Amino acid sequence: MKIKIFTFNPFGENTYIVYDEITLECMIIDPGCYNQAEENEISAYITAHQLKPVLLVNTHCHIDHIMGNGYISSTYKLPLHLHKDEEQTMQHSSGWGKMYGLEIGLQPTDRIYIDETSTLNVGSYQFKIFFTPGHSIASISFYCKQMNLLFSGDVLFNLGIGRYDLPWGNLETLTQSIKTQLYTLPDETKVFAGHGDSTTIGFEKLNNPYVNLR
After folding, report:
1. Based on the structure, what is the number of domains in the chain?
2. Theoretical Cys-Cys bridge with 127: which of 30, 68, 78, 120, CB 3.0 to 4.6 Å?
3. Phi first, then psi: what are they for 35, rounded to 5°?
């Protein structure tokens, strides 16, 4: 498995392309590409590596994570996979964008709802879904046991956690999501977050100033 990280838009959001080196199938997680230059950057990578996009997924639907949904969906003819309750978050994102003078563009009308009973497959790799609300109403995280890695969205960061002061955010819920879902994974699990650097579950359990198990 290969992982390509792009940092896009004014919010510095991490967009991920995850692909199987043999089949070249790829999953695009939280495309935050905001302008044509960023759209060209992600498409150039896909073309240069001859990738075959098969999945477009959102961990949650805050504005910075969905700016490129329309572009990716229309360019590669992909439906959007998201948790159904994140529709509420998406509806508010347009209004939030106007507060910042930003346009999020049209969102894909072809949508597939996923939750903790679902699995996603990219080539020979399978991703389990964790329901991890608290930053948003229905944030989900993606875990690949084969590679022991996690895409946590804005739930867990390197020495941080997601904001909980936004609509439908809740500190207690977020803390419980981290403790009862993410911290059950092996300590060596590598965590790729929606912002900032990667980390590991073990490091966060010991050092995260907001949620640690010391």
Report:
1. 1
2. 120
3. -120, 180
End-to-end CA distance of the chain: 33
Residue 159 lies in a domain: yes
Residue 146: Cβ-neighbour burial (10 angstroms; 0-12, 13-18, 19+)? exposed
User: Three-state DSSP class for 52?
Assistant: strand
Helix (H/G/I), strand (E/B), else coil: 2 = strand
Task: Enter the tokens of residue 108.
Answer: 């894909």
CATH number of 173's domain: 3.60.15.10
- What percentage of the chain reaches a pLDDT higher than 70? 100
Domain enclosing residue 109, as ranges: 2-207
pLDDT tens per residue, range 43-61: 999 999 999 999 999 999 9
- Any idea what DSSP says for residue 27? E
